[in-house]
Amino acid sequence: MKPTREHVTWRQSLRGYLWAAPWFVGFAALTVGPLLFAAVISLTDWNGISDLGPLFGVRPDGAPAAAAEGPDQLARWPHWVGLANYRDAFVPAPDIPFSQALWLDEFYRSLVNTAIYAVGSVLLTLGAALGLAMLLNQKLRGISVFRTIFFMPAIVSGVATMVMWRWIYNAEFGLLNTGLRRLYAAWNWAAPASWHLDLGAVPGWIESPHWALASLVFMAAWGAGSAMMIFLAGLQNIPEHLYEAAAIDGAGRWRKFVHITLPQLSPTIFFNLVIGIIASFQVFAEAYLLPSEPGGPANATLVYVLYIYQKAFHENEMGYACALGWILFGIILAATLLLVGASRRWVYYEGEAA
Amino acid sequence: MKRAAPKILIGLFLAALAVYLLFFFGKADEGRLKVCFWGAFEELGMWQQMAAAFERAHPDIPVKLEYYPGGRYEDKVRVLLASGKPPDVILFQDEPFPPFCEFGKFEDLSEYLKREGQSLDLDRDYWKTAAESFRWRGRQYGIPVWVGNTLIYINKDLFDKFGVPYPPDDWTVDEFLATAKALTRDTDGDGRIDHYGFTPPYWLYGLPFLHAYGARFLEADGPFPIEASHARWAFTGPEAEATATFIKDLVWKHHVAPRESEAGQMDANVQFLTGRIGMFTSGPWEMPFLNRTGLRWDVVPMPRGPGGRGTRVTWDGLAMAADSTRKDQAWTFIHFVAGREAQEIIARTQRSVPALKEVQDLFVSARPQRDVHVERFIAAMGYARLQPITDQWEKMAAPLSQEFGTMLRDQERTPDEMIRRLAVREKPIFGLVGGEP
User: Fold this and answer.
1) Is residue B141 domain-shared with residue B167, that is, in the same domain?
2) Is there a single domain that holds both residue B253 and residue B287?
3) What's the average model confidence in pLDDT over A157-184?
4) Which of A289, B48, B70, B184 has its CA 20 to 30 A from that of A331?
């Protein structure tokens, strides 16, 4: 018999809620609380340093004596500014021509950078993860060793990984460019003089405004391990009899992949896609740590969360930064809803009417 | 048997909760004076020595040192202050200092200076620019601890290898450029430069060159540090052009300094240590590190230009958190660090020029390398100038860092264009000198 509502006693419910309580408490205190606080702050011009008392008509007692005198001093305490922070985000600075706003205005530039990073890194990561998962979904001796090896980068601390990548990408001494220069030199040795390559013309990777964002995207594939594990689980859930039936019908490897593996895996792909998009919109550490200057060179890696961080903690615009945070929340929510809406067309859940 | 598992889990959960609460409400740190600072590895030892000396003199005040190495120290302090339970004593730089005074996060120390038996005469006993750096609206919010002025470090091994004479005590920007050219070499003949004369300075370290060409970032009609409303953006005109052109040409015209992709993401001191560059500008805080290496090095004064000679002076000082619950003990500690015993420890570490003038001789004589002209840091106090510090420092710095960086990175970006773009971006903060350009 199917369990119905009457069969759950109040004791059972209470136990359920009690077990979930630590999560609820943490969620309320550490997520909902700051979220609401940020919403309030986003309506002010708070700089992140001063007391918040003046917002609610309380004069702070730690104030310097001079602060009580004159409108110039009073202007330095936080005020309610309504939705001005949200307007300031979307309206480019007056000296920037409208046609170049996407490129020059830091808000739009950070959005564009983040969007490029999100699309590039998610496609690359999902592709790499699916490919690896297919390779590792074989009944071979010692396959678990390979699975461990490929999963390893996903659990190694992000900062340690980034230090390694800094050295791979280093334009002067890095692994990548040292290899490229060897290749160029080998080519020059073999090719006629008019086809010679310039040994100095290797990409600057993370130090070049043209390559920096692409470098971050390539690096994202390094973290494909966790998506790979989920794909692997998804692959092992595909019933063997479907493949056997297809084989009897004369299907080859490619047809099996397109008509059985992909449709059966679609919920897994969807899950990885949503998680990947959300995570890549929140990318921060890579852009903060990899370039010589966070977000550099020339704002090439200025991603959205880094922009928020700089406004909040370096330029003393906490109110504006909080508004930016809520705008990001709106963007991620919209992107997720869009993906969920579109998923009805291509994601197949077992047990659903086809 | 089946019922046992949840009980074990509940037990584990309760035990974990108890441990957590124990730490959460634990009073392990109560009763200790908290002092926070940043710095290189060598400086941790210096602070430990000072804290030990303090505890010998004041056994009733145990000290807890909180060491935050590396970058973004100000971010950390900001969060600690916002938490309402900040460290009692905070080491802070002069550049980002004013907003913390303006918004009442640092205690006004003006009255503490006159305390019976714990007084300090900042104007008489300390370097002239020291006390000024931590004033705001006429009140004293920080006590200077040590000073850094930027000079030029030279790698003597590299100078000797290429037969380049060491720079004299008084030299010009033209002689500086000639020296940089003489140090720039492609030693293995592969068409790529292996040794450069210099490294393009980060904008802040380029301030001495502004002085050499008579340029400045801000014009002010009020006391230092400047309230932003009393400052106007002044990096325009032929002096600004000459400065920017000089710095740009080091990289693109003369190529005596590495371009960004050639620097290999190494910090200037690492490029210096490895012999990649022969000279760089920095302050005395490089010395504890360089003294631990086998390198032969020296410091030479800033070169003189058409605008004269100048260098930047940057002070670090101790502030007291306005929310501190042990202000008397905090002042006792600050007073101790400003005093002779602690200042001698700073002098022996060679961290920087101590703020207390009377230990300057010890600072010079304590140098581990006999032929290093440490006294040039003292001499530089004579021509060092205060930085354009306002309560809008971070806002001013962001465009400067970006625009200087782009000019150095992008061959097409002219000095004129950089100056124009800077003016556009700094104008909303300060207004422009002389109104519209």
Assistant:
1) no
2) yes
3) 87
4) A289
CB of A70 less than 8 A from some CB of B? no
The label of the residue with tokens 């002092």 reads B35
> In whole angstroms, what separates CA A162 from the centre of its chain?
15
Q: How many CA atoms lie within 13 A of B122 on its CB side?
A: 24
Assess B306–A contact: CB distance below 8 Å, yes or no.
no
How many residues are given for chain A?
354
| Together in a domain, B212 and B91 | no
Both tokens of B108, joined, read 């006004």
- Residues in A touching B264 (Cβ below 8 Å): 170-173
Distance CA A166, CA A156 (A): 16
Residue of B74, B260, B277 to mutate, testing the A interface (most A Cβ within 10 Å of its Cβ) = B260
Residue B253 lies in a domain: yes
Residues B251, B282, single domain; the answer is: yes
pLDDT classification of B198: cutoffs 50, 70, 90: very high
Instruction: Kindly indicate whether the ipTM for this predicted assembly is greater than 0.90, answering yes or no.
Output: no
Token pair listed for A15: 């136990």
**CB contact A103 to B (< 8 Å):** no
Amino acid at B256: V
Question: What token pair was written down for B213?
Answer: 């060409």
Considering only CB atoms, which chain A residues are within 8 Å of B137? Answer: 64, 66
For B216-270, the pLDDT digits (tens) are 999 998 888 898 889 999 999 999 999 999 999 999 999 999 987 787 778 888 8
B437 touches chain A (CB under 8 A): no
Q: Which residues of A203-237 are buried (b: 16+ CB within 10 A; e: fewer)?
A: bbbbbbbebbbbbbbbbbbbbbbbbbbbbbebbee
Residue B370 inside a domain? The answer is no
CA distance A114 to B24: 38
Domain hosting B361: range is 32-148+315-365
Q: How many domains are there within chain B?
A: 2
The CATH number for B44's domain is 3.40.190.10
Distance (Å, rounded) from C-alpha B348 to C-alpha B363? Answer: 6
Same domain? For B136 and B257 the reply is no
Residue B379 belongs to some domain of the structure: no
Residue B376 CA to residue B287 CA, distance in Å, equals 13
Mutate to test the interface with B, among A50, A159, A199, A320 (most CBs of B within 10 A): A50
> How far from the centroid of its chain's Cα atoms is residue A69's Cα?
47
Asked if B96 reaches chain A (Cβ–Cβ under 8 Å), the answer is no
